[in-house]
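Could someone model adenosine monophosphate with this protein?
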Amino acid sequence: MIVILFGAPGVGKGTQAQILADNLGIAHLSTGDAFREAIRGKTEVGLLAKHYVDGGHLVPDDVTARVVEEAMANPTYSKGVILDGFPRTQNQAQALETMLAKSGKVIHMVINLDVENDIIVQRLLARGRADDTEEIINNRLSVYQQETAPLIKHFMDLGLLVHINGIGTITDVSDRILSAVISKG
Ligand code: AMP
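Reply:
Sure, complex below.
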């Protein structure tokens, strides 16, 4: 089963993707985590991605799609994957659809976590990651609006989008997500 956790930075995608992955017994793939790990390990991808991640900009689509394709070739993901933070652009969505078509897989559903902007900013500032300063948060939110938010319509047109209220406790939100996944079958 392939499920995409979608939403602005700070809506809780990472936390919820991990909980959903545990509940469904499938793996979770976060492109943000993959880039941070590559940066720590100073790999070729890491050296390339650092400048973008540090500034709150998107890593180029070809690099990102390659990271996802290589990761998904791993047997860890043979039963499915909860994608967290990918796709983030029209090109990435296209790359994902092409990648899945090659292996006869389809996207099961796209969960859009809805949280208002002022709550997002509070959450990110409280988290305090290196790219969670006010200036970089603003960059990330505007990149989200320009590049990523248009995908909502794309996934809605494909009949894959489910909106989930992302406000409440972690358990409130994970219960809502799980019910949505179960009711979709
Ligand atoms: P995240 O952990 O999802 O908030 O991602 C942290 C950072 O990693 C982003 O601000 C981007 O610089 C980079 N990143 C993560 N996912 C992607 C993606 N799908 N496309 C491009 N850059 C990404």
